């Protein structure tokens, strides 16, 4: 596939390597100050940034825009994903999200009742983690300029410096845990768009996962953490391995994929490892605490299907031992194969 160097195209927003390259060149390349007080800044490209405010405490902050189509999909809507997406980027830093800021750009002619439903969903997701919505902005623009709505949310968490978990901290010997089944969100969006809705029970996993992270933190030592959103676990695991200069050895048999996700994946020829999850976390955990962490996660509402899916090894590649006894290289996708997925 050829991508023009002069124009931004859909792939530049699809969470894969092409997007990463553009961010490095044009975004990072034009910003001179990218961190505050020695905290985690923009150049780390982590899920959130941190601002140390005294010797002990940090503010954790992040922002995310949501352009998902359709706005209402099996398992959720743009309101739930706008809250969960940002709350989760704070949560995977190891800190409880305390607030959300909400900016909405709405197309002229948008149904008031739909906006009401979307706000209720956003509120419910925040209630689940005890986060407040403290500020926001609303704009309306011509319907020929925007098809429905765009929601941008910024999140804040406050924690101790020593509880921050970056996505770069993996060490050889750590176990890799995923909090549940893979590919549910991306495949639910695709099956809704393709009109498979009547044939499958498939639902998006969109959910705020703070309770999963909290259970893991309280029961072991987490070395690195990410939410595997755009680009799926293929992207998240490669990013984590890359940043820590390590490899991974995964066991296909242990990676949970729902049969209905498998079915849609086969029909569309899309790899469930490469599509977005919106209610999952992947983490590296010290091996001697992995079983305790796994059991604690499995007791939470959104972590029942959690599994230890492999371990961190020397090297630089993410390799999966397949069910039939072979090996498959898991590479970071060029882009998430599902456009406007979150
Ligand atoms: Mg993230």
Keyword list:
single chain, 342 residues, alpha+beta, seven-stranded mixed sheet, five-stranded mixed sheet, 8 helices, 14 strands, 28% helix, 25% strand, globular, binds magnesium ion
Overview of the molecule:
With 342 residues, this protein is of the alpha+beta class. Helix content is 28%, strand content 25%. A hairpin with a 4-residue loop joins strand 1 (49-52) and strand 2 (57-66). Helix 5 (210-219) packs antiparallel against helix 8. Magnesium ion is lined by residues 47, 89, 226-227, 229.
Question: Summary?
Answer:
The protein is α+β, with helices and mostly antiparallel strands and 342 residues long.
The termini sit apart by 24 Å
| Overall helicity | 25-40%
How large is the count of helical segments?
Answer: 8
Q: Which structural class do the helices and strands define?
A: alpha+beta
- What small molecules accompany the polymer chains? magnesium ion
Order of helices and strands: HEEEEHEHEEEHHEHEHEHEEE
Largest sheet data:
7 strands, mixed
Shape: globular
Work out the radius of gyration.
19 Å
The tally of strands reads 14
Return residue spans where pLDDT drops below 50 for at least 5 consecutive residues.
none
Q: What value does the average pLDDT take? A: 95
In spatial order, strands of the major sheet run 9-11-8-12-10-13-14
Strand content: 15-25%
What is the secondary structure topology, with strand pairs?
Layout: H1 17-27, E1 49-52, E2 57-66, E3 72-73, E4 76-77, H2 78-91, E5 97-107, H3 112-129, E6 132-141, E7 149-160, E8 175-178, H4 184-193, H5 210-219, E9 222-226, H6 232-244, E10 247-251, H7 259-268, E11 282-285, H8 290-298, E12 307-313, E13 318-321, E14 327-330
Parallel strand pairs: 5-6, 10-13
Antiparallel strand pairs: 1-2, 2-7, 3-4, 5-7, 8-11, 8-12, 9-11, 10-12, 13-14
Helix pairs in contact: 2-3, 5-8
Bound molecules: magnesium ion.
């Amino acid at each position: 596939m050829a991508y023009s160097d002069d124009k931004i195209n859909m792939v530049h927003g699809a969470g894969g390597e092409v997007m990463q390259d553009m961010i490095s060149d044009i975004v990072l390349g034009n910003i001179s100050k990218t961190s505050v007080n020695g905290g985690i800044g923009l150049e780390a490209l982590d899920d959130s940034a941190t601002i140390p405010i005294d010797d002990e405490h940090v503010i954790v902050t992040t922002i995310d825009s949501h352009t998902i189509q359709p706005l209402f999909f099996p398992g959720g809507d743009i309101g739930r994903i706008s809250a969960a997406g940002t709350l989760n980027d704070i949560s995977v830093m190891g800190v409880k999200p305390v607030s959300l800021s909400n900016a909405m750009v709405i197309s002229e002619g948008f149904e008031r009742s739909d906006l009401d439903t979307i706000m209720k969903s956003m509120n419910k997701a925040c209630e689940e983690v005890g986060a407040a919505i403290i500020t926001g902005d609303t704009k309306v623009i011509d319907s020929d300029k925007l098809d429905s709505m765009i929601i941008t949310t910024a999140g804040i968490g406050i924690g101790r410096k020593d509880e921050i978990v970056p996505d770069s901290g993996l060490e050889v010997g750590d176990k890799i845990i995923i909090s549940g089944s893979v590919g549910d969100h991306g495949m639910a969006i695709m099956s809704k768009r393709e009109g498979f809705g009547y044939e499958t029970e498939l639902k998006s996993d969109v959910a705020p996962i703070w309770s999963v992270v909290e259970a893991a933190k309280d029961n072991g030592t987490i070395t690195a953490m990410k939410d595997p959103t755009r680009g799926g676990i293929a992207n998240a695991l490669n990013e984590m391995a890359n940043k820590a200069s390590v490899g991974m050895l995964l066991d296909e048999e242990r990676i949970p994929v729902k049969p209905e996700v498998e079915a849609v994946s086969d029909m569309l020829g899309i790899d469930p490892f490469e599509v977005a999850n919106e209610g999952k976390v992947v983490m590296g955990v010290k091996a001697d605490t992995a079983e305790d962490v796994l059991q604690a996660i499995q007791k939470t509402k959104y972590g029942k299907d959690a599994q230890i899916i492999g371990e961190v090894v020397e090297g630089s590649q993410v390799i999966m031992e397949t069910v039939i006894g072979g090996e498959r290289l898991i590479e970071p996708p060029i882009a998430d194969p599902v456009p406007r997925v979150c």
